Amino acid sequence: MPTVYIETYGCQMNVADTELMLGHLGAHGYRRTDAPDRADVILLNTCAIREHAEARVLGRLGELARHKQRRPEVRLGVTGCMAQHLRGALRERAPWVDLLVGPDGYRHLPELLSDDGDPHVALRLDPSETYADLPVAREGGVRAWITAMRGCDRFCTFCIVPYVRGRERSLPGPLLVEQVRALAASGTREVVFLGQTVNAYHDGAWDFAELLARTAAIPGILRIRFTSPHPADMSERLIDAVASHPAIAPQLHLPVQSGADRVLARMARDYTVAGYEALVARLRARIPAIALSTDVIVGFPGETDDDFAATEALLERVRYDSAFLFKYSSREGTRAWKWGDTVPEAEKARRLELLIALQERISGEINRRLVGTDVEVLVEGPARRTPGWMAGKSPQLKTVVLPGPAAAGDVVRVRVEAATSHTLSGQVVRP
Ligand code: SAM
Ligand code: SF4
């Protein structure tokens, strides 16, 4: 049996795509391996969101060239967003790569691999490709990631995703419900629906609120999450669904990107700061226990000191539980690319550091307020940093470590004894 090794870069969508490729190749006789040294096929499933992500993969391709030197029969492929983004340029910079396969080309992997002639490419975007009929080889465990929709139609001016992942399309709702049912039967306790604008999900009959409501009714599924919703697509029906189904976790990742209207308009985000904050207020009124997180970009072209100060002020006002903070990275092909990269690197780094310090303080304050309270933890497995302890998540997606006794899949009540900006820890208490 030929073996395949896949290394995944970037977001959860890519992790899910890797599971899809492993499932599809598995059905064609390939066995998965964790050892690139012995693999017949080595694939890097890549990300193009920031330049840094692409630089890492180029570095890794340089290292992998030695496998090709020692074993010329190894097939080396680049899949995913960076293959789609760099196309020919990638072949010039890493001519030892045999295969370039974009996000809509995974179906062709078996045939591309069976033909060991010239290098192959599958970079045509196909707006109807959902891979609905392909098997997925999931990691297993307490949580499963499920792709609900692919692509994006929003074209935020900084973002490469619509160009490399193509137009938005949703998987059929009944099929997703069947997948969740099967996962529940095999021990999965939490599902996370994925999509670049997952709340724009619509399969022609069901909207996203309907999909969530149907999933929430499946026995055995204790928690349902989704990422990332777009603020402009947060319907009242969706808020109602989250508020009314106990299985839908009170936690939302709601990327804001900037706290300045001027910047939001140039980013083409389709909401204002006031509109976004009104949405946050509605969410908190309807779902009092909700935890919020966000994404922010600093140093977007033309971002002034005042714009940045507005972002700091927004983080202070909203008080997110956590935030992913990024320096703007100019991506060729996007609309903002033409506006240059006007904020100097040192200034971007300064702004980023200020935001990180601000958010760490806020996250720490929010988490420390939980000391002395009880949280319900869905245990996932051994804690990474505390040998002998277990770790899991609260409904609000906060990492909680505990000494046990508990096994993966258990739900235990934990009295929080200590908190940092990233983790809670405590002891199991009887209900
Ligand atoms: N679809 C999601 C949304 O709109 O919220 C986000 C998808 S993207 C993979 C994740 C985050 O990467 C974005 O929310 C944004 O903050 C960041 N990002 C996207 N393009 C970027 C760029 N050119 N430079 C820096 N950060 C970027
Ligand atoms: Fe990119 Fe905007 Fe689409 Fe998110 S919504 S993937 S940021 S274009």
Write the layout of secondary structure elements.
Elements: E1 3-8, H1 12-27, E2 31-32, E3 41-46, H2 51-70, E4 75-80, H3 81-86, H4 88-93, E5 99-101, H5 109-114, E6 120-122, E7 143-147, E8 149-150, H6 161-165, E9 169-170, H7 173-185, E10 190-194, H8 208-216, E11 223-227, H9 236-244, E12 251-253, H10 261-267, H11 273-286, E13 291-298, H12 305-318, E14 322-327, H13 345-368, E15 374-382, E16 390-393, E17 399-402, E18 411-419, E19 423-429
Parallel strand pairs: 1-2, 1-3, 3-4, 4-5, 5-6, 7-10, 10-11, 12-13, 13-14, 17-19
Antiparallel strand pairs: 8-9, 15-16, 15-18, 16-17, 18-19
Helix pairs in contact: 8-9, 12-13
The chain binds S-adenosylmethionine (SAM) and iron/sulfur cluster (SF4).
S-adenosylmethionine is lined by residues 11, 49-50, 158-159, 161, 196-197, 228, 230, 255, 257, 295, 297, 326, 328-329, 331.
Number of strands: 19
Helices and strands: which structural class? alpha/beta
Q: What hetero molecules are in the model?
A: S-adenosylmethionine, iron/sulfur cluster
Q: Average pLDDT, to the nearest integer? A: 96
Low-confidence runs (pLDDT<50, min 5 residues)? none
Structure notes:
The protein is an alpha/beta fold and 431 residues long. The chain contains 13 helices and 19 strands. The protein has helices spanning 12-27, 51-70, 81-86, 88-93, 109-114, 161-165, 173-185, 208-216, 236-244, 261-267, 273-286, 305-318, 345-368; strands at residues 3-8, 31-32, 41-46, 75-80, 99-101, 120-122, 143-147, 149-150, 169-170, 190-194, 223-227, 251-253, 291-298, 322-327, 374-382, 390-393, 399-402, 411-419, 423-429. The strands form 5 sheets. The protein has a 6-stranded parallel beta sheet with strand order 2-1-3-4-5-6, sandwiched between helices. A 5-stranded mixed barrel has the order 15-16-17-19-18. A 3-stranded parallel beta sheet has the order 7-10-11, sandwiched between helices. α5 (109-114) links the parallel β5 and β6 (120-122). α8 runs parallel beside α9 (236-244) and α12 (305-318) runs parallel beside α13 (345-368). The longest helix has 24 residues, at 345-368. It is globular, with a radius of gyration of 22 Å. The mean pLDDT is 96. It binds S-adenosylmethionine and iron/sulfur cluster. Residues 152, 154-156, 159, 161-162, 196-197, 230 line the site of iron/sulfur cluster (SF4).
